[in-house]
Amino acid sequence: MIGGIPLGDALLASGALFLVGLAGALLRRSAISIFLSIEVMMNAANLALIGYGSALGTREGQIVVFFVIAIAAAEASVGLAIFVALFRHKETIDVNKINLLKW
Amino acid sequence: MNPALPLWLVPALPLAGFLACGLLGKKLGKSFVTAAGVGSVGLATAVAYARLLPFFSGDHAPVVERIGPWITAGGFSADLAMRLDPLSALMTSFVTFVGFLIHVYSVGYMRHDETEAGYARYFAYLNLFMFSMLTLVLAQNFVLMFVGWEGVGLCSYLLIGHYYERQYAADAGKKAFVVNRIGDFGFLLGMFGLFSLFDSLDFDRVFGSAAADPAKYAPFLTVVCLCLFLGAVGKSAQVPLYVWLPDAMAGPTPVSALIHAATMVTAGVYMVARCNVLFRLAPEAMGVVAVIGAITAIFAGIIAVAQNDIKKVLAYSTVSQLGYMFLACGVGAYVAGMFHVLTHAFFKACLFLGSGSVIHAMGGEQDMRRMGGLKSKLPVTYWTFLIATLAIAGIPPLAGFFSKDAILAGVFEHERYVLWGIALFTAGLTAFYMFRLVSLTFEGSFRGTGEQEHHLHESPPSMTAPLVVLAVLSFTGGWIGLPRVFGEGADRFTAFLSPILLPLASAEEKAEHALSNGTEWLLMAVSVAAAVAGLLLARSWYVRRSGRPAEAIAASFPAAYALVAEKFRVDELYDALVVRPFDWLARMLWKVVDVLIIDGILNAGAFLVELAGDLLRFLQTGNVRNYALTLFLGLVGLLLLVIGFGT
Amino acid sequence: MARLMFDAAAIFTVLFAAVMVVHRHPVKSVLALVVSFFGLAVCYVMLSAPFIAAIQVIVYAGAILVLFLFVLLLLNVPEETRGRDPRPIQRILSGGALLVFAVYLLGLLRGHGAPAGGPGGTVSFDVAPLARLLFSRYLLPFEALSVLLLAALVGAFVLAQQEKGETRR
After folding, report:
1. How far apart are the first and last CA of chain A?
2. Which of C42, C66, C71, C101 to mutate against chain A (most A CBs within 10 Å)?
3. pTM, rounded to two decimals
């Protein structure tokens, strides 16, 4: 393969992916869907990091992404545990209905 | 001059007495208090005379003894320093001696009625008073004098309210303090003025600068002197601030004798005399002093005529006599004024202590209408009282005649004939009401209850001895200041005080104003005539005709009589003009400003916070999507801002 | 050529992410996301990060999303109901904000569009430098990470516990 990837392409992809995730996080009503959208946003960030790392010729970007993925795993497991506990009590995943903290 | 005894020892000894009686008196008992309280003053008197006697006989150069630096702040400094000069020596001589006599008298008077605590408290405060008064007269600068000034006011309050369980006494104490305060305000203003003019409050510096350059300072001194005089008006109970003194009779009688007759009330006169250099440069101020003195003298004299409480008569008499002293100072006869201070201390103290003896014998009764015929039962009291009355009436050769005559002569000499006329009439009035008092109390037949009659007895020696001493002084005290008609040099008193009190008058001026011998004799005769007239009228009405003429007059002019008997309702006037508005104002400030406005603002603040909280809680929808959206909107907002600033 | 592959993979990724966002059925959503992540892995490879690509597939697609699936299947999460959103304001505001943000992002990216990046011409598959960095400079975070994972494990376990007396679901 010849040729590196221009940074602009990577960033554009990252931005588009981020917007998709953001839209999902704001517009969906299901808790799972919101969670998944957040994961998408994180991946968009990862992509941007890798892109920059490649553009600057260093491995630091990949290191960061490495950690991000590991932490995303931890976070996902805890988040799903919360989801499980929530679902057991409320029997719904509609976030509109989960409003115990309402005034 | 005895170098071994410093001046500050004289006030310090009573201060030690105050501490001893105050701290230990209750525990160690009445004997200790007597020893400490009376002993300290006795010692102080001895120390004072150890310094005074050489001073009197030697040269009268002023002595300043500096104890140490006291206040230094910026451009202002005041030292702790005491001054011995003819004026302060004069004051010290009778303050200590008369004070000592009254302390001795108090032992007999207070011993039986008081608890240990009350007895100790009384002597402690009395000693504190002596300390303050001596500080006042021995001070070398206005600040230290003011310390003493305030101290005597405080002690006056404490001692008037000695029987503090009686509402009347407590109120009287407060009244004295508050009215005094008004005067003190004037004194302070005067001090501020003096400092701004002279950059110092030391007597030598102030008086020296004023004398050296009169033209520079004279325009401002009128205001300053009037402010200082306001202080004297308060302290020495002149119109319009005299109202506290009659009420002050609620205190024990020895207190009335010491504080409200002989010493504290004369502090105002002393102050004016001390500042004569300044007053001479402010003739308008002097005029005010003279007029107020005269008005006070006659006004109080009129009220005294219709009073039935023996102490009230004496109180108004004091106010009236103080008016005389100020009249003298106001026309420029400072020596005459101070002379009267001295003689008044003797006979007024004697009169008050004598009345105390009477009240003691009557078991606490003070209304003269229930007395009478005490002459036989209380002989020593009667004779000493009579001597003192003759003195105050101005009958020669007793002391009061010489001092009063000196004043009248001085007023006439300075051509203030209207004031002279007022003073003369008041002299007659004085004789009248004083002999009315003597007649009602001692002459005739007893009008009290049987029980009281049974109780009548002469007072113990601790009380009668001071009476005798004071009576002797009332008789002989005037002889140091014989008028000039008896020969040059007869007036040793004037010679003694002249350097201090007449520095600006030159010999020519004196000669110009001097009265001829003939005029002097004539004036003397006139004043004696007035006094004798008053005496005879009183005896006629009250002894021979048992008061019927007076009753007849009172019946014919009931409104006028009521007005005079009720002291012209001045207290009621003040109440309506001053006290009630202030009360209203205080109430207003409390109910409206404090509660409504200030508390209201604070409460409103709290209320607003609560309200904000109440409204803001609607942001907590509990809906996660809302929160996410809010976060995102915030982010977008921030980004827009960045775009705005960045590009 | 590399660029072409990258662009294709990127479009692929974004497309399937969109599918995930749109779909109502939760399981179908997750599966779409799995596919999307595969595309993302290809993107990583094109950007000289083969190790990360592998991690992405193994951990993200293979573990995390599988976990998601497990939960969904375990709890029998229903399909998201179609229904009128009781709060349309939310959608309106979201839409507006998204639009603004999109514009902003594009504007931002325009500045970086120039191919000033890209150091070399080749795509590198060398993992060794990464390993060297990871085990020297970033050793401490690496070890701390294991503690973090332990904490997450315990936390998840505690949170998902059934309370006493509750029947097994």
Report:
1. 60
2. C71
3. 0.70
